[in-house]
Write a structure and sequence with these properties.
disordered C terminus; four-stranded parallel sheet; alpha+beta; elongated; 317 residues; 13 strands; single chain
């Protein structure tokens, strides 16, 4: 009898509306049929996914997490601590699932489980934040960025993406500008910025218009968006037009690509990494770790199952 492959299935039961509970049997059955011995871990607290990966991940051939973008962030952060990386799968179950959408991972949990079990590997860039933390798709500061980690989970579950919209509207009255110096290998900027994000995705907060839709997730470059403080109603209108209508350029909106970027501010600035609080800092250095991780994202039933069965036969011989 062939030896079963070892895998770790991490589940965040609070993500989305907790629908993963209704699909747990189907998901587990998929991995068992694919030849895996499944260790299931239900997260109990913040950073629990990271900790279990660090503790048990080195013994596994496949690690799959089910939750929102924050759960994926914790899982990858844990995997970055391992000497060798097991295969990685993701079953999206959050309120927005920006990175899963960018990767075109199936929204249906059963299909996502099949992709994690049999799918092909896709290399992705990983963001390194201040040489001590990581992010998968976005690091940001300023207006609205606090919405993702301050919005209560129960409100996210009930209202989904609308919860982010409601909390964002509340934040319109308290927009704060930060005097910053921004440096890359190619350029240097200085000014009062109300918002900034360094991304590796085509969707942020469920919105696709904020970033370049042709952005590659493994080209070694980040997409950067910076918004200066508007001084007049016309400048504010130009910002909105530039961001969402893209029918005109605005001096208040800066977009560019870069491999690494440094932000310096006289006062501490709150940062958000993949929807989770990243700390308050006066200096931040972000670097792109080119194709540092691989994730399973696509599954063609006939082709991939034939490959899987062929691999089993070769091992048996």
């Amino acid at each position: 009898m062939a030896k079963k492959k070892q895998m770790l299935l991490i589940i965040n039961p609070k993500s989305g509306r907790g629908l993963v509970r209704n699909h747990l049997l189907e998901i587990t059955d998929t991995f068992v049929k694919a030849g895996y011995q499944v260790q299931i871990h239900i997260t109990q607290r913040a950073l629990d996914a990271r900790d279990v990966v660090i503790r048990d991940g080195a013994k596994k051939e496949l690690i799959v997490c089910s939750g929102g973008d924050g759960t994926l962030n914790e899982t990858i952060t844990g995997m970055m601590q391992l000497k060798t990386h097991p295969h990685l799968g993701y079953i999206p179950a959050g309120s927005t699932n920006d990175f899963a959408s960018s990767l075109k991972i199936p929204k249906q949990m059963g299909a996502a489980a099949m992709a994690a079990a049999y799918g092909s590997e896709y290399p992705i860039d990983i963001g390194e934040f201040c040489q001590e933390r990581y992010f998968v798709y976005v690091a940001g500061f300023g207006a609205f960025t606090e919405v993702s980690y301050l919005t209560p989970q129960d409100k996210k579950n009930v209202l989904g993406h609308q919860a982010y919209m409601l909390e964002s509207v509340k934040g319109l009255t308290s927009i704060k500008a930060y005097r910053m110096k921004v440096q890359t290998d190619e350029m240097q900027l200085e000014g009062d910025f109300i918002f900034g994000m360094v991304t590796n995705t085509i969707s942020v907060g469920g919105f696709k218009g904020l970033v370049d839709q042709n952005a590659a997730l493994n080209d070694g470059l980040f997409e950067v968006l910076l918004i200066r403080m508007p001084k007049t109603p016309l400048e504010f209108s130009n910002i909105v037009s530039s961001l969402f209508l893209k029918d005109e350029k605005s001096e208040q909106v800066c977009r560019f690509k870069t491999r690494a970027i440094r932000f310096t501010c006289e006062e501490p600035v709150d940062w958000v990494l993949d929807g989770e609080f990243g700390g308050a800092r006066t200096e931040v250095y972000v670097e792109n770790l080119h194709r540092r991780m691989e994730i399973r994202r696509s599954f063609t039933p006939k082709t991939d199952l034939v490959k899987a069965e062929t691999g089993k036969l070769r091992k048996q011989r």
